[in-house]
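Q: Sequence in, structure out?
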Amino acid sequence: MTKPTVPAYASTPANYGARRGTVPAEAFRGALVVAVRPDSPAYDAGIEPGMYISHVNDQSLTDMIVWLWEADEDEVELTVFDPSDDTSTPCVLERFPGEDWGLTFNDAIFDEMRTCVNACVFCFMRMLPKESRDTLTIRDDDYRLSFLQGNFVTLTNMSDSDVEEVIDKFLSPMNVSIHAVSPDVRRSLIGRNAGRGIEVLERLMDAGIEIHAQIVLCPGLNDGDELDRTLRYCEAHPSITSLGIVPLGFTKHQDRFASSYSDDWRAARAVVEQVRPFQERAFERFGRHTFQMSDEFYLAARLDPPQADFYDGYPQFYDGIGMIRSYLDDTDAVLADAARVRRTGDALRSLGLRLVVISGEAARDTVARFVESPELSGEARAIKNYYFGGNVNVTGLICACDILDQLETDLGRVMLILPEVMFNADGLTLDGYHREHLLTLLEERGARALCSSTAPQELLSFIEGDLGL
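A: Exactly. Output:
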């Protein structure tokens, strides 16, 4: 059987399993069916939402990798467990070429989540408030989610059989946190299992697995000479086709870190300059820059982000690399149709509405390029993150309590847009407010409160739809 061709992010939103938790191994029933497409092979076989698929072709259905691998042909043998009567029934599904089976599962992982065995000094999960809900503190480090959803993993908890599965099924690309390469530095950063990560990484690269790597750069720990060593290591391994370098983020709920690159623009700029020769050599060799700085570095260094072609197709976009450039280019494209934007702005003004779009502090000026354009005449409102504190300032980590504390109590005649990225798949903020509850509280202050993507094209289309334009 050949490896199925599937997009790396095909199953569920990133980190969905980590948020929701997984079925304990002793209670494993298989994959929970949450939807069945009418007139599909699964529908014709009588499979219904609430049932479980426990086996596929006699293989335990532990994750989406097993499903994608085993259900790649036009006939598949299933074992279906019905919890309504505790029965397991075998069935055979057949489909036409190109047809899907009609099944939607609740998650990407159906057995127990592989959790982290490390003690990373910069672990954000260890810096959360004590009152955080349990699902936020699950430290997943599951290689299956690396392939399926793009999660970064350290590889330190992989058994030899896990490694062989990745190689045999050619689960490529994999997203790997490297952080450092010197054994003593890795151990001080990650803990006693650090050596296993490099061992597994090299086995995967030797087998031809493509790697998207990451460094969380911590001042005084893995920067300077150690960063040079790590960059040279990555340069010597062409299987590493992208390396994202992101700065240390920390909250007020810890006592180890008090500053990062966001507090020292000269230090941030020095890192950008340190990486540049590696980018230039990679482009000469491969036609790609490979070594990518996160948007936070350019913001901290007071530098404009590179042009779009520098980002090599944005392989680490959801790691915060290239988002600002993408937003700026999207802004320019939308504002090129000035008449359309002005029409929307005029419609808001004719209704006496003032547009206010919520943003994290880091992205406020970028969002303002579109929202505060003369045609739209809105306001990009930065929300300071007191809930997490520290240097947390990104839009995706905005909490409801900070919005409620910082917005005025009279929001009459305001169209208020909350960024959809601050809510998880269940509609919850990080401090436990449901989206609909938060919108209701803001509406009680007089706002026309809505939730949308704040990317210019999507935001403009959303506002047009809400206004009936």
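The first helix runs from residue 16 to 20.
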